[in-house]
Amino acid sequence: MVIEVKTDLDQKAFGDVLGMWGSVYWLPVTMLGFAYDGVQFQTFCDYIRSAVREAPCGLPECLAVHKQNYLYVRARYRGAENPSLPNRRRTTKCQFLVDLAAAGMGEGTAPALFLHWQNELLTNSLMPDDLPLRECRELGVSGDHICIIDDD
Fold first, then answer.
1. Which residues contact residue 70 at a Cβ distance below 8 angstroms, ignoring those fewer than 6 apart?
2. pTM for the full model?
3. Which of 36, 61, 72, 104 has its CA 20 to 30 A from that of 118?
């Protein structure tokens, strides 16, 4: 497992995380990104949407920002990359962003979920693809605060 830690997840730091992912994505490892502070949630959503469309290697499995209390999670990539489509990597069953602060979740919920899912990935190689999304919904996070990303 690789964890990239940043003090502030701004555009440069986000690019650094994608760069680290680009150097390890082909290995059989999970990569997570964590930052203490970061941009506003909508800006983070813009970073993620752009990376889904344009990043040649895709995105790490999880990115969490502690102070802003939001995160991005995706299921493992599946299938083979399609070499006939530029910048199209394997698809994923589920990827989403969640603004836990706007959903009224207490400070520290994003890092708590980040650590929980990290533990799940380390101890359960068959973790269900939709477990993070189901657990967010079980916490009471409504659809207004969850943005499911279509990677097509």
1. 38, 41, 44, 64, 97, 98, 99, 100, 101, 110
2. 0.78
3. 104
